[in-house]
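Dear colleagues,

As part of the handover before I leave the project, I'm documenting each prediction I ran so the next person doesn't have to rerun anything. This entry is a single chain, and its sequence is reproduced below.
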Amino acid sequence: MPHIRKPAVAGWFTGEGDGFRLLGTRCTACASVFFPREDVHCRNPHCPDGSLEEVPLSQRGRIWSYTDSRYRPPSPYVSNPELPWEPYALIAVELEAERIVVLGQAAPGVTVADLTVGMEVEAVPGVLHEDAETTWTIWHWRPTGVAA
């Protein structure tokens, strides 16, 4: 049986390698950009409510803030208690062109000691979970100039 790569959340990103992009939506009336995507109505309370179109987001941004996750989250969050907990860095990245901040995990091997506010990072494909049949994919933020 072939191993299938499947997005953990459909419609939030597309592509592989250099073509990897987060996907958001933009309102045609007020130009507000949303991530996660909005498919029903514009969330801008001052907008006359235009239609929404899918847009690829900037691949690079600057760290707005960051922290680390050092403990296993409590219920109702899902984590396998049979596996050891591995701390990870969580990064809030400002996408200047879109005027939004997008959260995401740091790429494997990147810790809070490697990060500074204002540092340039790029969205790269990542793995959330793998089982015998499926690799569930997500996005990670990686400092630019760091090899995969």
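Residues 4-143 form one domain. The mean pLDDT is 90.

All the best with the project,
I.
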